[in-house]
Amino acid sequence: MKAKAYRFSPYLLEIEAKRLLRDNQTVPMTRKRFEILLLLIERAGQVVRKEEIMQQVWPGQEVEESNLTQHIFFLRRTLGDDPRTPSFIITIPGAGYLFYQPVQLINEDGSEVTIGGLHPNKLTAVEETLPAQAGAERPTGHFRSSRKMMAIVVTSLMLILAAAALRFWRSSEKASQPSPPIVQPMVTRPGTKGDLRFSRDGRYIGFTSEGNTVDSLNLFVQSMDGGELKRLTTNSLTDHSLTWSPDNSKIAFLREGALSNRKNKIYIIPANGGGERLIGEAWHGLDWSPDGESLAICDSEGPGRPTGIYLLSLRTRRIDPVSRPNPSENIFDSNPRYSPNGRLIAFTRWTSTSNSDLYTIDLISGELHQLTTDRTQIVSHQWSPNGNEILFASNRNGNFRIWKIPATGGEPLSIEGPLGEVRHFDVQKSPQNKNLLAYTQLFTDTNIQVENIAGKGETPATRTPCSISSTRADHSPQFSPDNKKILFVSARSGFNEIWIADADCQNPTQVTSFRETGIGSPRWSPDGRSFLFDRLIDGQTDVLLFNIESGQYQNVTADKSPDFLPTWTADGDGFFFCSERLSAREIWKTGIHGGEPTKITRNGGFESWATKDGTGLYYTSYNSLFRLDLNNLREERVDELKEIFFGRYWTVMGDGIYYLTREVANRCRIYRFDIKTRSTSLLLELAGAPVKYVPGLSISSDEKQIVISLINYNPGDISLVTDWR
Question: Residue 601: which H helix or E strand, with range?
Fold first, then answer.
């Protein structure tokens, strides 16, 4: 009899559908984790060796054991299992894993058979083997009465000792309490700030900030004693990834190219001002070696190859590889950082554009050491001045905070001092031997505005403009097909969740309650009954479908590669989405009820919108706008708009392409490009600027109203923490 499903309270594992349900609701899970869980459940009550799991789940592939360990970690988190006292999956050190709970096997004819589950005698036999294996986990439940009595005695003793320890701690707390870290503003120059680095002697800080043109960052240097602010570069492009020479006389930095798919230029400039010197090209990330002989950069062996860490000799210009990511599992390595003694380089390795971990590599032995296994976003990292620890900014607990981890590995600990969420930071010793930490906050308050427009030359709507606002970020708005509702993302609950409000901005209602980061790009279905959105699940981005009436959702792109930025087909039977499943970002199409996805672009694709008649798809690729004919898959660039940087503030409605341009003095303009007449018209100008990386523009179906998210508050100061710990 063929098995149809397995039930283990409160879960149901459906074999053919390849999904896990909890109380009749789908539990998001990657394909590999489903396969591992299914294998363990099929052998419930038996130890499944690690080698066997890797052979069955990754047939014919060389997979490190840490990969399996990571999947087990996320499986436990999905099941709500505590690895210290597991109820489902037990680690048998030196052997493998055991699924502990009894399971009801449901056959196709509806009959059920209980399998697995440890009989008390079998449990005793397993428990007796565990103490001889260091680090073994013990299952919960089924303990003998003598063990319960022992637990009561031990617990009582622990309570007595804890009470005594608490009295002692309170009596000595005041005397032993260290002084709190001091946080103060350091750079208050107006404008967005980017990367920042202390000079090696801790007397100066270099940073990038907005120059004279929109969307560009230039290089500045500020003395730590509050002296003169010095501007080193002036250009219309963005400078970033600065690093000081060991003698503090020069600064190396990267400058973005005019096109986003080109390498950055590497420049060196005197720290006190002067002419800049071009010395090469690299992808993101740069650091100067302590001996002054080389720069650690990011490069690749050629087109289509993953980016690794390389050393660029400043004397010979020779480039030597340091790290080589596995192209089947990793996209790129980034942000190299030399240890103070110059022997190690710390860097982040990315398995997708949203998943990374921290590594070190020994430049003498070549030994590679993985420090974290979170698969989260590590946006920056630095060595501690003594070289014993590495600090990194990560969203490993939901919000971006700074953590420190021993350079040899261990459990990360959070850093006290920085306020709010942190993106860029650096640490150094001051001339007075104090621990200095400078940082910029990762926080932007955006509001959503509804404005009337004169669509297609007609009289604007008479509805009253309004706004959806809170003290946190509100963005990614979209009108419902009937123009009565607005779908949007808000962080007002403490996490990014999807909300729905009336079109007059009243009655905002929270729809999702994931309480995690990584939710975005909500898109109404043509019938207004559901919406698509992308979500970061266990370090992987997938597209999900949410049914508004039932409140249930399902994962519709479960794949090991990142899938994101969904948009519906005109008939609502399928959707387009961006995917990195073949390494390069392209746009794919699939049916809403399943089916094998099809790649439909060939030269790169990012965000897309289908035309109302279903014949075309407009999409962005490397800062240009393209149209794809869905009948013959012919791609052509929209030359009239080739100079426009779209970002994610654009959309297609009717015969028009609507887009935003950011202007000087914190203003923006909304334009409409008529697809038939090939003409462009200015619709309105607004105070405010768009926030990068999130969608912010939607047009009502009658083309008489616009909903847009603009920055209300963006803290641009660089703060300084003295005596951080």
Answer: none
